[in-house]
Amino acid sequence: MYNLRPHCQSEIFSLRSVIVSPPSVIDIPNLKAAKEVQWNEPVNHSIAQEQHNNLCHALSEENVHILRYTDYLCEPDARLSKQLINRMFVRDLACVMKDTILPGHAGTSMRKPEYDHMQSLLRVWFCDEFKEIDVQISQGLEFGDLLILNRDAILINVGARTSVHSVKAILKQLFAIGFSEIAIIDLPRTSETLHLDMNCNIAHEDVIVAKSFLRFFPIQVYTNEKDYNYYMMEDYVRRHQFEVYWLEVYNTIPDINFLNINPETILLSTKANRRIFNDHPKLRNKNIIPVEVDELEKGGGGIRCMTLPLERRN
């Protein structure tokens, strides 16, 4: 991993390397337990592990280098990590933006250990690229709430797990990385809107797939020159040459939480509705790679949540 050079300024450029984590070795035995830990259904860890292996195989088949951070934990941390039921959702723990890695901050105390585990490794592996947050963050900053629109603009949700205080605290760092616009949307605090990538995703160089209700939400846009302006969602992304493909009917996790491997290829849950892609002229010719991850999705996240891109190249 020491030869890797983290770099991401797009959601669709060719994925070269990615961080993942296997699921916990602990079963979620019944629906009552699942609901109490904010999962959707009970989970069998053996099935979940098999599906994680299949996900990694699909990535490897596309020549994506896989880094399982959990393989490098010291023994006490590894013993604890195996019991952390959310550790497979690595997207939240950090974010590669251009040539910089920023650490996340857990929006719920249950997830704090996995943040510390992975970030302690990133500091060592990528000491030049890893940048500490300049200010003390006391509230959540989870990167499932961030979409890189292009080299100039990023869109961040402040809602259930990421606070507006945290985003405003890092604005100067985001501008220093090289972004000229930081757009903030504030979605309702529900299980269906836990993170931004459960509500919209970039599916093509100029197409964003989004739940239809997002059209009603204003976006607050910060720039270096002005504190902020307001735009409606569709107006704002059109300024950045995106069409919005509004979805009236959807299954939140499998339909929206997919992963772009490159501009032509998408990794998609076998539970996803393929008609969403087939019905759009710019998406119907995509190379769709289906992967069975439904046991993993019961934890409340999808393929995008389970993958942290380290390197995307044009």
TrEMBL record:
Signal peptide: none annotated. Coiled coil: none annotated. SUPFAM superfamilies: Pentein (SSF55909). GO terms for molecular function: arginine deiminase activity. It comes from the Bacteria. One of its GO terms (biological process) is L-arginine deiminase pathway. This is Arginine deiminase. It comes from Pontibacillus litoralis JSM 072002.
